[in-house]
Design brief:
With 218 residues, this protein is α/β, with parallel strands linked by helices. It has helices spanning 14-25, 59-64, 75-81, 109-114, 126-136, 151-155, 169-173, 193-198, 200-212; strands at 6-10, 41-43, 49-53, 70-74, 86-91, 97-104, 119-123, 140-144, 160-165, 176-185, 187-192. Bound molecules: adenosine monophosphate (AMP). Adenosine monophosphate binds next to β9 and α7.
Length: 218
Protein backbone atom coordinates (compact mmCIF):
# COMPACT_ATOMS: atom_id res chain seq x y z
CA UNK A 1 0.00 0.00 0.00
CA UNK A 2 1.77 3.18 -1.14
CA UNK A 3 1.72 5.54 1.78
CA UNK A 4 0.21 8.63 0.25
CA UNK A 5 -2.01 7.03 -2.33
CA UNK A 6 -5.59 6.08 -1.59
CA UNK A 7 -6.45 2.86 -3.41
CA UNK A 8 -10.06 1.79 -3.91
CA UNK A 9 -10.79 -1.80 -5.01
CA UNK A 10 -13.80 -2.31 -7.27
CA UNK A 11 -15.04 -5.10 -9.50
CA UNK A 12 -16.13 -4.51 -13.08
CA UNK A 13 -19.80 -4.42 -14.00
CA UNK A 14 -22.65 -3.44 -11.71
CA UNK A 15 -20.51 -2.60 -8.69
CA UNK A 16 -18.21 -0.34 -10.72
CA UNK A 17 -21.11 1.39 -12.51
CA UNK A 18 -23.16 1.93 -9.36
CA UNK A 19 -20.16 3.18 -7.36
CA UNK A 20 -19.46 5.99 -9.86
CA UNK A 21 -22.21 8.31 -8.51
CA UNK A 22 -20.90 7.77 -4.97
CA UNK A 23 -17.39 8.66 -6.10
CA UNK A 24 -18.78 11.73 -7.85
CA UNK A 25 -20.29 12.84 -4.53
CA UNK A 26 -16.75 12.67 -3.11
CA UNK A 27 -15.48 14.75 -6.05
CA UNK A 28 -13.72 11.73 -7.55
CA UNK A 29 -13.94 10.96 -11.24
CA UNK A 30 -12.44 7.80 -12.74
CA UNK A 31 -10.52 8.77 -15.88
CA UNK A 32 -10.76 5.50 -17.81
CA UNK A 33 -13.60 3.18 -18.74
CA UNK A 34 -12.82 -0.40 -17.62
CA UNK A 35 -15.02 -1.79 -20.40
CA UNK A 36 -12.75 -0.12 -22.99
CA UNK A 37 -9.36 -0.44 -21.36
CA UNK A 38 -7.36 -3.47 -20.27
CA UNK A 39 -5.71 -1.57 -17.46
CA UNK A 40 -6.19 -2.88 -13.95
CA UNK A 41 -5.19 0.38 -12.26
CA UNK A 42 -7.34 3.34 -13.22
CA UNK A 43 -6.32 6.91 -12.47
CA UNK A 44 -8.78 9.48 -11.15
CA UNK A 45 -8.94 13.26 -11.28
CA UNK A 46 -7.03 13.22 -7.97
CA UNK A 47 -3.34 12.30 -8.35
CA UNK A 48 -3.44 10.57 -4.96
CA UNK A 49 -6.58 8.45 -5.53
CA UNK A 50 -6.68 5.41 -7.79
CA UNK A 51 -9.05 2.53 -8.51
CA UNK A 52 -7.87 -1.08 -8.84
CA UNK A 53 -10.04 -3.62 -10.65
CA UNK A 54 -10.24 -7.05 -9.03
CA UNK A 55 -12.66 -9.95 -9.07
CA UNK A 56 -15.67 -9.33 -6.85
CA UNK A 57 -14.70 -12.20 -4.56
CA UNK A 58 -11.16 -10.78 -4.20
CA UNK A 59 -12.21 -7.31 -2.96
CA UNK A 60 -12.33 -8.36 0.75
CA UNK A 61 -8.86 -9.95 0.42
CA UNK A 62 -7.31 -6.84 -1.14
CA UNK A 63 -8.76 -4.62 1.56
CA UNK A 64 -7.99 -6.96 4.46
CA UNK A 65 -4.30 -7.24 3.55
CA UNK A 66 -3.87 -3.59 2.53
CA UNK A 67 -3.56 -4.08 -1.25
CA UNK A 68 -6.33 -1.49 -1.24
CA UNK A 69 -7.32 1.00 1.47
CA UNK A 70 -11.01 0.58 0.76
CA UNK A 71 -13.31 -1.32 -1.53
CA UNK A 72 -16.88 -2.02 -2.49
CA UNK A 73 -17.93 -5.61 -1.91
CA UNK A 74 -21.16 -7.56 -2.21
CA UNK A 75 -22.45 -9.01 1.05
CA UNK A 76 -22.22 -12.44 -0.63
CA UNK A 77 -18.46 -12.05 -1.08
CA UNK A 78 -18.08 -10.66 2.45
CA UNK A 79 -19.89 -13.62 4.00
CA UNK A 80 -17.85 -16.12 2.01
CA UNK A 81 -14.55 -14.35 2.84
CA UNK A 82 -15.34 -13.50 6.46
CA UNK A 83 -15.20 -9.96 7.79
CA UNK A 84 -12.15 -10.28 10.05
CA UNK A 85 -9.92 -7.22 9.82
CA UNK A 86 -12.42 -5.24 7.78
CA UNK A 87 -14.21 -2.11 8.88
CA UNK A 88 -17.66 -1.98 7.23
CA UNK A 89 -19.01 1.51 7.77
CA UNK A 90 -21.77 1.57 5.14
CA UNK A 91 -24.39 -0.50 3.40
CA UNK A 92 -24.29 1.30 0.04
CA UNK A 93 -27.61 -0.19 -1.09
CA UNK A 94 -26.23 -0.73 -4.60
CA UNK A 95 -25.90 -3.82 -6.84
CA UNK A 96 -28.91 -5.29 -5.08
CA UNK A 97 -29.86 -8.87 -5.72
CA UNK A 98 -30.59 -11.99 -3.71
CA UNK A 99 -29.09 -15.40 -3.06
CA UNK A 100 -31.58 -18.11 -3.94
CA UNK A 101 -31.96 -21.82 -4.41
CA UNK A 102 -33.00 -22.86 -7.92
CA UNK A 103 -33.80 -26.22 -9.49
CA UNK A 104 -34.92 -27.63 -12.83
CA UNK A 105 -38.60 -27.07 -13.51
CA UNK A 106 -39.22 -30.81 -13.41
CA UNK A 107 -37.41 -31.41 -10.10
CA UNK A 108 -39.68 -31.84 -7.06
CA UNK A 109 -37.70 -29.81 -4.53
CA UNK A 110 -40.35 -29.89 -1.78
CA UNK A 111 -40.49 -33.65 -1.89
CA UNK A 112 -36.70 -34.06 -1.95
CA UNK A 113 -36.40 -31.79 1.11
CA UNK A 114 -39.28 -33.48 2.97
CA UNK A 115 -38.03 -36.99 2.31
CA UNK A 116 -34.77 -36.17 3.98
CA UNK A 117 -32.79 -37.47 1.02
CA UNK A 118 -29.41 -35.93 0.32
CA UNK A 119 -29.56 -32.93 -1.94
CA UNK A 120 -26.73 -32.31 -4.37
CA UNK A 121 -26.08 -28.56 -4.39
CA UNK A 122 -23.71 -26.78 -6.78
CA UNK A 123 -22.56 -23.30 -5.85
CA UNK A 124 -19.80 -20.75 -5.54
CA UNK A 125 -21.36 -19.77 -2.19
CA UNK A 126 -20.56 -22.84 -0.12
CA UNK A 127 -20.63 -21.10 3.28
CA UNK A 128 -24.00 -19.46 2.68
CA UNK A 129 -25.44 -22.68 1.25
CA UNK A 130 -24.04 -24.91 3.99
CA UNK A 131 -25.44 -22.72 6.75
CA UNK A 132 -28.83 -22.38 5.06
CA UNK A 133 -29.38 -26.12 4.53
CA UNK A 134 -27.97 -27.02 7.95
CA UNK A 135 -30.55 -24.72 9.57
CA UNK A 136 -33.29 -26.49 7.59
CA UNK A 137 -31.92 -29.88 8.61
CA UNK A 138 -31.33 -30.85 4.98
CA UNK A 139 -28.30 -33.01 4.22
CA UNK A 140 -26.36 -31.75 1.25
CA UNK A 141 -23.52 -32.88 -0.94
CA UNK A 142 -21.81 -29.64 -1.89
CA UNK A 143 -20.24 -29.21 -5.33
CA UNK A 144 -18.00 -26.14 -5.49
CA UNK A 145 -18.17 -24.23 -8.78
CA UNK A 146 -16.64 -20.93 -9.87
CA UNK A 147 -19.17 -19.88 -12.52
CA UNK A 148 -22.07 -20.83 -14.79
CA UNK A 149 -23.88 -22.48 -11.88
CA UNK A 150 -27.05 -22.70 -14.01
CA UNK A 151 -25.48 -25.47 -16.02
CA UNK A 152 -25.15 -27.85 -13.08
CA UNK A 153 -28.81 -29.02 -12.81
CA UNK A 154 -29.08 -29.22 -16.61
CA UNK A 155 -26.18 -31.63 -16.90
CA UNK A 156 -26.97 -33.78 -13.86
CA UNK A 157 -24.04 -32.41 -11.87
CA UNK A 158 -26.43 -31.26 -9.14
CA UNK A 159 -30.10 -31.21 -8.09
CA UNK A 160 -30.04 -27.56 -7.06
CA UNK A 161 -27.91 -24.44 -7.27
CA UNK A 162 -27.39 -21.57 -4.87
CA UNK A 163 -26.69 -18.40 -6.87
CA UNK A 164 -27.27 -14.68 -7.16
CA UNK A 165 -30.55 -13.74 -8.79
CA UNK A 166 -31.45 -10.27 -9.93
CA UNK A 167 -34.19 -10.16 -12.58
CA UNK A 168 -34.53 -13.94 -12.77
CA UNK A 169 -33.94 -13.85 -16.53
CA UNK A 170 -30.87 -16.09 -16.40
CA UNK A 171 -32.78 -18.79 -14.50
CA UNK A 172 -35.73 -18.54 -16.89
CA UNK A 173 -33.49 -18.79 -19.98
CA UNK A 174 -32.10 -22.04 -18.56
CA UNK A 175 -35.45 -23.56 -17.54
CA UNK A 176 -34.71 -23.23 -13.83
CA UNK A 177 -37.06 -22.01 -11.12
CA UNK A 178 -36.30 -20.18 -7.89
CA UNK A 179 -37.60 -22.29 -5.01
CA UNK A 180 -36.15 -20.47 -1.98
CA UNK A 181 -34.84 -17.02 -1.30
CA UNK A 182 -31.91 -17.30 1.14
CA UNK A 183 -30.99 -13.66 1.66
CA UNK A 184 -31.08 -10.19 0.17
CA UNK A 185 -27.74 -8.84 -1.01
CA UNK A 186 -26.35 -5.36 -1.46
CA UNK A 187 -22.83 -3.98 -1.59
CA UNK A 188 -20.90 -2.55 1.35
CA UNK A 189 -18.06 -0.10 1.68
CA UNK A 190 -15.18 -1.90 3.40
CA UNK A 191 -12.09 -0.21 4.77
CA UNK A 192 -8.69 -1.50 5.87
CA UNK A 193 -8.40 -0.90 9.61
CA UNK A 194 -4.76 0.26 9.58
CA UNK A 195 -5.44 2.61 6.67
CA UNK A 196 -8.35 4.09 8.57
CA UNK A 197 -5.90 5.14 11.29
CA UNK A 198 -3.07 6.28 9.01
CA UNK A 199 -5.18 8.13 6.42
CA UNK A 200 -8.08 8.99 8.68
CA UNK A 201 -8.93 12.49 7.38
CA UNK A 202 -9.03 11.64 3.70
CA UNK A 203 -10.80 8.31 4.14
CA UNK A 204 -13.37 9.91 6.46
CA UNK A 205 -14.14 12.51 3.82
CA UNK A 206 -14.76 9.79 1.23
CA UNK A 207 -16.85 7.70 3.67
CA UNK A 208 -18.99 10.74 4.57
CA UNK A 209 -19.49 11.66 0.89
CA UNK A 210 -20.51 8.07 0.09
CA UNK A 211 -22.94 8.11 3.05
CA UNK A 212 -24.58 11.28 1.73
CA UNK A 213 -25.13 9.76 -1.73
CA UNK A 214 -26.52 6.30 -0.87
CA UNK A 215 -29.63 5.66 -3.00
CA UNK A 216 -32.77 5.75 -0.83
CA UNK A 217 -35.28 4.07 -3.12
CA UNK A 218 -36.30 0.39 -2.76
P1 LIG B 1 -30.53 -12.11 -13.55
O1 LIG B 1 -30.60 -12.81 -14.88
O2 LIG B 1 -30.83 -10.62 -13.66
O3 LIG B 1 -31.37 -12.77 -12.48
O4 LIG B 1 -29.02 -12.16 -13.07
C1 LIG B 1 -28.47 -13.38 -12.70
C2 LIG B 1 -27.05 -13.51 -13.15
O5 LIG B 1 -26.31 -12.34 -12.88
C3 LIG B 1 -26.39 -14.64 -12.39
O6 LIG B 1 -25.43 -15.27 -13.22
C4 LIG B 1 -25.75 -13.93 -11.24
O7 LIG B 1 -24.60 -14.62 -10.79
C5 LIG B 1 -25.44 -12.55 -11.78
N1 LIG B 1 -25.74 -11.47 -10.82
C6 LIG B 1 -26.96 -10.98 -10.50
N2 LIG B 1 -26.87 -9.97 -9.63
C7 LIG B 1 -25.57 -9.79 -9.40
C8 LIG B 1 -24.80 -8.88 -8.59
N3 LIG B 1 -25.38 -7.94 -7.83
N4 LIG B 1 -23.46 -8.99 -8.60
C9 LIG B 1 -22.86 -9.93 -9.36
N5 LIG B 1 -23.50 -10.80 -10.14
C10 LIG B 1 -24.84 -10.75 -10.16
Amino acid sequence: MSSNMITLALSKGRIFEETLPLLAAAGIEVLEDPEKSRKLILPTNHADVRVVLVRASDVPTYVEYGGADMGVSGKDSLIEHGTQGLYQPLDLRIAKCRVSVAVRKDFDYERAVKQGSRLKVATKYTSIAREFFAAKGVHVDMVKLYGSMELAPLTGLADAIVDLVSTGNTLKANHLVEVERIMDISSYLVVNQAALKLKRERLRRIIDAFASAIPQSS
